[in-house]
Design brief:
alpha/beta, Rossmann fold, 3 domains, 7-stranded parallel β-sheet, 6-stranded parallel β-sheet, 16 helices, UDP-glycosyltransferase
Length: about 475
């Protein structure tokens, strides 16, 4: 039976999963009406999608403060429950940059003190919802839902305060609601900001995480679907020939290319030094008679100049292939992915031997093509920027899902990178096999069937 599905896009990064995959097409093929509730700067009508655009309303002024307090309370409770201080690493520093920021910080600290218990956590969540019901934003959401009369409201990300009023209004109108857990590392970081009737998750592992951390959620509220974000890698028709790819980006057909995938400045403050070390290793190998090129794909939300000197120093080794994202505003959530970038990324993976980065999910993008990943495993975080062993982010909970440390090649020191690159160029099937095992833990397989499973979940909830 045909259903009307309202897909809430609270931020631009959700476009990748639900506008640039087969999700929309498959829904139409099943006879459903799909309407995007669009909070991004991207006009979905330009690509033929039906949409309603958010009115210029804002959440209650207190909601963001309550959200920040809620996250910090949850992280404190996670630390206490699991006897593990790693959760404290997920906290962002509270700002004191202005009078307004100091006032906000004071209020956050007070709410953390007043609601800093298991029962207080539930109370602060209820208070967020109660505050939203007082706003004109909530009323406009309710009016829109009454006008459109969807059979279900599907929220493409669980982490935005923008989504609280739409979901609350839908629940008040007895419209079923679903929140999709956006990323593989989100649940332990206490980013499940919204409260919905149901949750779609990547894997059985993520379902267990959600039940462990968010104890107000019951097993029957969770459906395991996988994520659509890896689907494009399995669409072989999107891959152009090596000759065409090399020609388009002025690459040298006599060279074998590897990819260095950059991180944002918060995750990897000295990422430019990692790029320098890898480029230096490539230079060493080329002097020994190899023909290797290093493609640098920077993080889509990093517009800094921190790499410029390194790129100039190693201009014979480094080729720039910047992400094809559109910067529409100043916030990170107004830097939008494009279909063209998905095409670029799919072909970049197809025509490079492997990827190097600091702890990103690119390991899974590459393993879809049977190719390995190397993780940087030292840091330059001291004052003299000298090499120190280890990287703090590998203590984060989501890396504990790795079944074997052989899932990646660990680059433990600049002096050993050249040897590791040579090994990877010759082939490391044991690493690829271990990475595939890891991928199966964090994302339901076959990965290409995620859109179909999402629609199966939606249909189940709208019977």
């Amino acid at each position: 039976m045909s259903k009307k599905v309202l897909v809430l896009l609270p931020d631009g990064v959700s476009l990748r999963n639900f506008a640039y995959t087969s999700f929309y097409k498959k829904g139409l093929e099943k006879g459903h009406e799909i309407l995007f509730w669009n909070h991004t700067p991207f006009d979905l009508e330009e690509v033929g999608f039906k949409q309603v655009v958010f009115k210029k309303e804002k959440p209650h002024w207190l909601t963001d403060i309550l959200k920040t307090a809620c996250i910090r309370i949850e992280l404190n409770l996670f630390s206490k429950r699991d006897t593990d201080q790693v959760y404290q690493s997920y906290k962002f520093p509270l700002s004191k940059a202005s009078l307004k920021a100091r006032l906000k910080t004071t209020l956050v600290k007070w709410f953390c003190f007043a609601y800093g218990s298991e029962s207080g956590l539930l109370a602060i969540r209820k208070r967020m919802i109660a505050q939203e019901r007082k706003t004109s934003y909530y009323r406009s959401c309710k009016e829109m839902l009454q006008k459109e009369k969807p059979d279900i409201l599907f929220c493409a990300s669980q982490r935005s305060v923008i989504a609280i009023s739409p979901l609350t209004a839908a629940q008040d109108l007895n419209i079923p609601t679903v929140s999709y857990i956006f990323s593989w590392d989100n649940v332990p970081k206490a980013t499940t900001v919204v409260t919905s009737d149901h949750y779609f998750v990547w894997s059985d592992h993520m379902k267990e995480e959600l039940l462990h951390y968010q104890r107000y959620i019951q097993p029957e509220q969770i459906i395991v679907t996988g994520t659509p974000q890896f689907e494009p890698h399995y669409q072989k028709e999107a891959i152009v020939s090596k000759e065409a790819f090399y020609k388009e980006y002025n690459l040298d057909l006599t060279k074998k290319y590897i990819c260095f995938s950059g991180d944002d400045i918060t995750t990897s403050p000295k990422d430019e030094l990692y790029l320098r070390d890898v480029a230096s290793a490539v230079r060493v190998l080329n002097k020994k008679g190899n023909a290797i090129g290093l493609i640098f794909r920077r993080c889509p939300v990093d517009f800094s100049t921190r790499y410029d000197a390194i790129i100039e120093e190693f201009k014979d080794e480094i080729v720039l292939l910047p992400p094809l994202w559109n910067k529409i505003g100043d916030g990170w959530n107004t830097i939008l992915p494009t279909r063209e970038d998905i095409h670029l990324q799919v072909n970049l993976i197809a025509h490079t031997a492997f990827v190097i980065n600091l702890g990103s999910s690119m390991v899974f993008d590459y393993v879809t093509a049977g190719k390995p990943c190397a993780y940087m495993n030292y840091n330059y975080l001291n004052e003299k920027e000298t090499v120190e062993a280890g990287v703090y982010i590998y203590d984060f909970v989501h890396f504990r899902s790795m079944p074997s440390p052989e899932a990646v090649i660990w680059l433990d020191h600049p002096d050993t990178i050249a040897d590791s690159l040579e090994k990877m160029l010759k082939g490391v099937p044991e690493t690829v096999a271990a990475a595939q095992d890891w991928f199966a833990v964090i994302n339901k397989q076959p990965a290409i069937e995620a859109p179909e499973r999402i629609w199966g979940g939606i249909e189940k909830l709208t019977l």
